[in-house]
User: Fold this.
Amino acid sequence: MPETTATSFDVREVSATTRVIEITGDITAQSEDVLMDAYGRASGDGVKAIVLDFSGLDYMNSGGIGLLVTLLVRAQRQHQKVLAYGLSDHYRQIFELTRLDEAVGIHDSEDDALAAAGAS
Assistant:
């Protein structure tokens, strides 16, 4: 298992209804507080879509997958779409195996994800 890396989840507003969470580093069970804080900052009034930018992801384990499921449940309760881009082939396969790809819209680029979110 890799050493603990600096993990950050930066929130960027792209429209009144869409936010991007830029993921840098690792997503493990230890990322819970930081990830949920980022989701809280992203999920303001009127936000309809949360776009996860995985292009800076170094590592994700089963604990990290569990956190994504938690984020997805919270977003669904708020009637928000969750979309993603920047996933490596390896993590795309994991999303398919865990069926997360059925709940999270996977896109090839930020532009594609934003278009699907209705923010372009």
User: Anything to note?
Assistant: The helical segments are 32-42, 62-77, 89-97, 110-117. Residues 62-77 form the longest helix (16 residues). The chain has a mean pLDDT of 93.
